[in-house]
Structure formats: C-alpha cells, structure tokens
Design brief:
- It is elongated, with a radius of gyration of 22 Å.
- Helices cover 50% and strands 11% of the residues.
- The chain starts with a helix and ends with a helix.
- Strands 2-1-3-4-5 form a 5-stranded parallel beta sheet, sandwiched between helices.
- The longest helix has 32 residues.
C-alpha cells in the first residue's frame, strides 16, 4: 500500500496555483492529438508527415531519438512512430528507456528488416503495433488511431488522479490516516485500535473523508485510493530519459 506521504510526494509537484483539470479527452479530434515520427530516412519521414496531415493529425518528424532531447511533450494524446534500426539509439533501445522512466505514450514500430524475436520483444514491452515496410497507408492510420485512443485514456486517468489528489490534500493528517486504513479493508473498530481512538471518532473521521473526497460509497473511496496509487504522473520532457546510460 502506498502511504499518504508517498502520495503527497508523487503529486505535489504537479499541483500549481494556475493548474486546472481539463475535461475528459478520450473522444478527441485530430487537432487535439500529436504524433512523433522518428525515422532516419528523409523520404519516409516526409511521406509520413504528409499522410498524417492529410487526415488532420499534427506531427513532427525527427531523424533520431536524440533530436527529441529538448522536445516538450504536449498535453495531448500522443504516440511515437519509430523505426527499429537507426544510428545511435535504436527504436528498441529508446522504447526500453521510455518504459524504464515510466513514460507510457504508445509506440508504433516500423521496419524493413523485421524478425520474429524483434517483434516479440517490442510487443512485450508495450508496443501497440509493429508494421513491416512497405505498409499500406491505411495500416499506419489505423495503428495511429488506436494508439491515440489508448493515450487519451491514459491522460484522462492521470488527470483524474490529479483531481482526486487535489481533494486528498484538503484532508487532515488524521483523516488521511483513516482513509489509508479504511481503503486497505480495515473495519471501523480495527481502525480505532490502530490509531488509538474510540470507534465513534473513527466514524466521524470517515464521514468527513467521504464528504471531502466526494465519495458516495466505500467502493468509490477505494477506487480513488487505487487511482492515486496506480496512475503515473505526467512527464513533460524526454531529456532525462535520453541522457540516461543504456
């Protein structure tokens, strides 16, 4: 179980006075999504940009992952379209660094030299598709659509976690302790024994927690606690990932 203090450290850097929680973005338009293309062949890069622009998708193309060093990640549903074999950091190495750093933006791989072990490795690490060149344009568009839908759900979950944590911050230290114990499955009497108060006091704290968190039931409260534990905080830059040694 993640304690209150761990939750605070996880989210407090995300909560600034000017920050607002955006509306759900799962149902999005192409203008509200972004595709990063990483391909060392210039004609392929330009062709992919043209293809995505033809359906209204925003994109930017790079010749290698290192060109992403100073790139800020947009607060939009996104995906990477990566070539497998590139000079320097390969597509698979880049994927490994993203996974190690907790970046969950979906990846679509493309290659002209596919083999089964390579495809298996990519898919086990979370790639949403693996396209062998030459591929049909519709295959790429279908893969990008799936990836953006997945990332939209990820962003929604992350934003919901931040909104939930904003409410969590309004709780007192004792209320947070009660929430931790109640959502871990302890009964009121057990919670009272654990924190050294009478059961009626626990009931009061529990009611206050439910009200401040906006929970309609214990099941709601458990879902909120799980959301804060499991949803990764957003990462806005890739520089630390790419600087990390292999």
């Amino acid at each position: 179980m993640m304690t209150s203090d761990l939750m605070i450290r996880k989210y407090e850097r995300l909560l600034r006075p000017t920050q607002s929680v955006a509306a759900p973005i799962y149902a999005r338009t192409p203008q509200n999504a972004f595709v990063f293309i990483v391909e060392d062949d210039v004609s392929m890069r330009e062709g992919l940009v043209d293809l995505l622009e033809s359906v209204g998708l925003q994109s930017e193309a790079f010749s290698s992952p290192t060109e992403l060093l100073n790139m800020e990640l947009p607060d939009l549903a996104s995906c990477f379209v990566l070539d497998i074999r590139m000079p320097g950091i390969s597509g698979l190495d880049f994927q490994a660094r993203l996974v190690a750093a907790g970046v969950r933006i979906p990846i679509i791989f493309m290659t002209g030299h596919a083999d089964v072990p390579m495809a298996v490795r990519a898919m086990k690490a979370g790639a949403v598709d693996f396209l062998t060149k030459p591929f049909r344009e519709q295959e790429m568009l279908d893969a990008v659509t799936r990836a953006i839908e997945l990332d939209g759900m990820r962003l929604d979950r992350s934003r919901q976690a931040i909104e939930t944590f904003t409410r969590f911050q309004t709780l007192s230290e004792r209320e947070r302790e009660v929430m931790d114990l109640v959502t871990a499955g302890l009964m009121n009497k057990q919670v009272a024994g654990r924190i050294g108060v009478v059961e009626s006091t626990v009931k009061i704290y529990r009611a206050q927690v439910m009200r401040r968190m906006g929970a309609q039931s214990l099941a709601d409260l458990v879902r909120m606690a799980e959301l804060m534990r499991s949803a990764p905080g957003p990462i806005t830059s890739l520089s630390a990932i790419l600087d990390r040694p292999k």
